[in-house]
Every structure is written in C-alpha cells, then in structure tokens.
Amino acid sequence: MSNLPMVLPVCPASAEHGEMVLRPLAFQTYEQKFCGTWYDCPQCRSSILFPSMELSKVNEEVKK
Ligand SMILES: [Zn+2]
Fold first, then answer.
1. Residue 32 lies in a domain
2. Exposed (0-12), middle (13-18) or buried (19+): which is 52, by Cβ within 10 Å?
3. Is residue 47 part of a domain?
C-alpha cells in the first residue's frame, strides 16, 4: 500500500467529473484486490487501477 498517490486521482474521461473514489473492499473480488487499489468515477463509472506490490512483482517475473 506504499505506492498510492497522496491525492485522489481525477476522472480520466473528464476533469469535470472531479475526484474519483476509492472502491470499497467489500465490492471487490479476490483478483481485484490482488491487482491493486481501484478508484471509480461516481459520474461515469470509469475506473483506474494503481497496481499492487504483488502485481508488480509478478510483472517483473514475467519480464525475466
Ligand atoms: Zn468520470
């Protein structure tokens, strides 16, 4: 959880949508939690992912 931004991300679809909200863990599958931290736009349901340390490790393993 150390690679998260200090400020909430803004919706990639439109800056007018404003800040995105952290997706509650209760609404996430195991795979989603493994991948990292999800943010959703309350206006258009766009979502973005900040990859977890675990996923970064997997990606590095694949590169070798
Ligand atoms: Zn949006």
1. yes
2. middle
3. yes
**Ligand 1 centroid distance, CA of 33 (Å):** 22
Q: Give the Å distance between the CA of 60 and the centre of ligand 1.
A: 31
Residue 58 lies in a domain: yes
Is there a domain that residue 40 lies in?
yes
**Domain housing 21:** 16-63
pTM comes to 0.77
Distance between Cα 41 and ligand 1 center (Å)? 5
The pLDDT tens digits along the chain (64 residues) read: 556 667 899 999 999 999 999 999 999 999 999 999 999 999 999 999 999 988 889 889 988 7
Q: State the burial class of residue 6 (Cβ atoms within 10 Å of its Cβ: 0-12, 13-18, 19+).
A: exposed
